[in-house]
Design a protein that fits this description.
By secondary structure, this protein is α+β, with helices and mostly antiparallel strands. The chain is about 45% helix and about 15% strand.
């Protein structure tokens, strides 16, 4: 992980390069006086973004200063016409959460590509957003998780803690629930200022004493591969190895694949 100076230096170099690439005409300003530097001047970026010129200059020069707010970064990104990946990089270097970030799932081609991939997986597979609500799933997942995906609580956390059927369906429910809460905390930490995220946690805290107790433990876990078992009402006990993959360019999206446990060979 970059230290404080390395992060400030990377941020300053990034801002300066993109400022120099920005044509003054892009903002329909009258910047007609003789220019000795390419692109916009620092005071022009600062003025367009509604921030102090001296403070912006200190950002570019990697000097210690108050960390830029998410609102200031949003305005700077708009002035510099940053692309979605560039914007994400800006917020990452600044250690801020981009509350205005919208996943590119509105792009039908992107969504279609992800959906085609999920539907082509032979094992149960589904895609979760940062709130742990499923966006896509294949037929195998629909059959395995019918209690969840066709139930009253489509959000995975709400299903686990507010739907009574989950306790009978999930083997070792208490252990799994505790792991789920600890894994979810990572996504919560990346969107701690998101009103929708706060609403989800608030609703779970009010609706489930168990969730409230587990949430107060402050445990954090990575969502690594692990073995899962389910008491399916139609097929009996089913065992899987579950693996989680992050979607490139969309770190808040998680693809979960449940591979059936290999059966032991029958002895002769």
């Amino acid at each position: 992980m970059m230290d404080s100076y390395s992060r400030r230096l990377a941020l300053g170099q990034f801002l300066r390069k993109h400022r120099e690439r920005m044509a003054p005409e892009a903002h329909q300003q009258s910047f007609r006086r003789r220019r000795r530097t390419p692109g916009l001047r620092r005071e022009e970026v600062a003025g367009l973004a509604g921030i102090s010129t001296s403070w912006y200059a200190r950002l570019e020069q990697a000097e210690e200063t108050a960390a830029p707010s998410a609102a200031a970064l949003d305005r700077i990104a708009t002035v510099l016409r940053l692309t979605a990946p560039e914007r994400a990089y800006l917020f990452h270097l600044s250690g801020r959460i981009d509350l205005n970030y919208v996943a590119d799932l509105e792009d039908k081609s992107v969504l279609s590509a992800i959906e085609s991939f999920v539907l082509g997986i032979s094992s149960p597979a589904y895609l979760l957003d940062k709130y742990w609500t499923p966006l896509l799933w294949n037929g195998e997942a629909a059959r395995l998780f019918a209690i969840w995906l066709e139930g009253p609580e489509i959000n995975l956390l709400r299903h686990m803690f507010l739907d009574p059927k989950a306790r009978a369906f999930v083997v070792d429910w208490e252990l799994r629930a505790r792991q789920l809460v600890a894994q979810f905390r990572l996504d919560f930490g990346n969107a701690v200022d998101d009103p929708k995220m706060l609403g989800l946690v608030g609703g779970l805290t009010e609706g489930s004493d168990v969730f409230r107790s587990m949430w107060s433990d402050q445990r954090v876990l990575f969502r690594n591969g692990s073995d899962k078992a389910y008491n399916h009402p139609d097929f009996g006990l089913l065992k899987f190895h579950q693996t989680t993959y992050l979607v490139a360019g969309q770190p808040s999206l998680k693809l979960i694949v449940a591979t059936p446990e290999a059966k032991e060979p029958v002895g002769e």
